[in-house]
Amino acid sequence: MRRTVADDFEPWLERELRRTIEPVRGPRPHAVQAAYRAVAARRDPLAAVGARAAAAIVAVGLAVGGGLSGAAAVTGTPIPASWGELVAQAVTSCRDQAPREPSPATEAGDARRCVIALTGQWGETLVPDRPADVAPAHGPSTPAAPQAGPAPGEGEDTPKPAPSGGKQVDGEAQTSGGETGQSGESGQAGETGESGQAGETGGSGQAGETGGSGQLGGDRTTGQGRRPSDQDKRTRGALPTIAPDQ
Amino acid sequence: VDVPGRQEYRPGSAQDFDRLYEATYQRLFGTLIALLRDRAAAEDCVQEAYLRAFQAWPRWKPDAPVEAWLHRIAINVAVSHRRRERLREVGEVVRRLGVPHDVDPIETSTPDLLRELRQLPPKQAAALVLRHVHGYSNREIAHALGVPERTVASRLAAARARLQDRLAWLRSPGIWLPNGVPSDK
Fold this sequence. Notes:
Chain A is mainly α. Chain A is built from nine helices and two strands. Chain B has 185 residues and is mainly α.
């Protein structure tokens, strides 16, 4: 039987291919150094950053939306332009109800007192960085006077609910059931602990300690309102009650 | 081809793909070194192939032979690379018209068989390596090349004949003749 070169060639080819190619080794493969790992690692941080950005946007949106809806609920109107007008009207009527001898000092004090009373009624906080020369003309220091401390778990910078039918007893805002719903989303956020945590970890809590927009008269550790002093009660009693729908 | 732990690979699992990478890297590299001009190109193409495979890993069907699937991706990457390389070479030739061609150190240091293998169409060269180096079956070669199984035998025969023709003039005359013609010896 005759053998062809093709019969010889195939074994030779296989032998030569193995001899030529098998010794050729690439670098030792480590998956951690592979290109696909690097690309995957580059993608993951982007995804994480994207998620963080989305979370931040949602948080900011909730904060802004909560503040706006809270203010709208308190003033009874969704139009921000009319909020300032409502405040001006309320302060004017407050000053009219407590006539005094007109002088620049007493007028400023009246306005301030009315605003404080107003914010106590409407649940807004006020920056207590009033000038020292106003306080002696109207009695005791006012920052803690008319404020109700936040309920346990409420955020310290959470606007108070609109107590149209509520009454204040011993520094704690008492609201009837249906009115807490009007307190807006910020009140709910406080109940879920978000605002409270923010206050405890710095944020508005620190601001409150340093005289910023934190709670006025509230106990930072318990969230309970500080029991007002007698002078506080006198001050509050001297102020007219202003309904938020005025 | 018996890839260790083949049955345990789960599509989309990053850990399994890491194992697959470490188990199959050298064989893929060996295939591409036969198709491409040098080691650096082979390494680049292997990494590119694993990158593409990783992106497609969630869609891999476990009933397909996983290494043949990887080879298919790698061969396609190598074919694209060779096409780009050819275009570059044409550009070089045009640019160097009239200038003596430098001797390529890689070409001169490459064994004859490997050099001639690289002159074959890439899928023919790949078929030879898959069969004679990796021991693939016709089905696995078909999967790796993306051709019907019945055409694998004819592809292999064509590749062998072509390589034999190219090698014949390098050898002592009369040892091998093309297309199965008996030799003088």
